[in-house]
Amino acid sequence: MSLVGKKAPVINTPAVINGEEIVENFSLDQYLGKKDVIFFFYPKDFTFVCPTEIIAFQEKLAEFEKRGVAVVGASCDTEETHLAWLSTPQEKGGIEGVNYPLVADSSKTVANNFGVLAGDWNYNEEGDLIFEGQPVAYRGTFFIDKEGVVRHETINDLPLGRNIDEMLRIVDAWQHVEKFGEVCPANWEEGKSAMQATKEGVSSYLASNKK
């Protein structure tokens, strides 16, 4: 079920911050009332599509910070594996230079609570508890506002990388809505016209954008 419009699940789990420091009790609550958050899941450390996304977020980090948005990543790896990957140069398959937090969800409870775990536990015919599917997270991305409410989510299957610029567009759209009370139509981007959520507003917008 979608989390949009609902409070984001509470997390309290280890993480690596600043690319080098393990903390035991990382929580998104630290951003409440202060920052919006992009919280994204990726399948696994030391893989192939994942570093391209993680580094792409780092390359756009200043743009998110300019908008008052914290970026936080998460996978079902341990904090020690995160730290090892963060300490490995990019030319050797690592993500050295990434300095936003990476959450360690080795229990898989965070991924499960956010609805992005790529499998589930079940019993086989012999009564043994087994994991069906893959014990990793799908590429889930959640935009959470300052009140802790999820305003946007997307979940990609494992082979499908994200568009980081689209995440910035979502941030811009939500912040425009909050600031001006207008709604953002299809393909809206910062600097384009938005509209009032009325029949007249829609008619006016469509008329002004006829080609």
The topology string of helices and strands comes to EEEHHEHEHEEEEHH
SS summary, helix count: 6
Radius of gyration: 19 Å
CATH top level class name: Alpha Beta
**What count of domains describes the coordinates?**
1
Strand line-up in the sheet with most strands? 2-1-5-4-3-8-9
Question: How would you state the average pLDDT, rounded?
Answer: 95
Uncertain residue segments: none
- Specify the structural class: alpha+beta
**Strand-residue fraction?**
25-35%
Specify the CATH homologous superfamily: Glutaredoxin
Named CATH architecture: 3-Layer(aba) Sandwich
Assign an overall shape: globular
Instruction: Report the helical percentage.
Output: 25-40%
- Could you name the CATH topology? Glutaredoxin
Query: How many β-strands, per DSSP?
Result: 9
Largest sheet: 7 strands, mixed
Distance between the termini: 39 Å
Walk me through the structure.
This protein is α+β, with helices and mostly antiparallel strands. It has a single domain (13-162), classed as Glutaredoxin (3-Layer(aba) Sandwich), CATH 3.40.30.10. It has helices at residues 49-59, 61-66, 79-86, 109-113, 164-180, 199-208; strands at 13-17, 21-26, 36-41, 69-75, 102-104, 117-123, 129-137, 139-144, 150-156. The strands form two sheets. Strands 2-1-5-4-3-8-9 form a seven-stranded mixed beta sheet. The radius of gyration is 19 Å and the shape is globular. The mean pLDDT is 95. It comes from Marivirga aurantiaca. GO terms for molecular function: thioredoxin peroxidase activity. The active site is at 50 (cysteine sulfenic acid (-soh) intermediate). Keywords: Cytoplasm, Disulfide bond, Oxidoreductase, Peroxidase, Redox-active center.
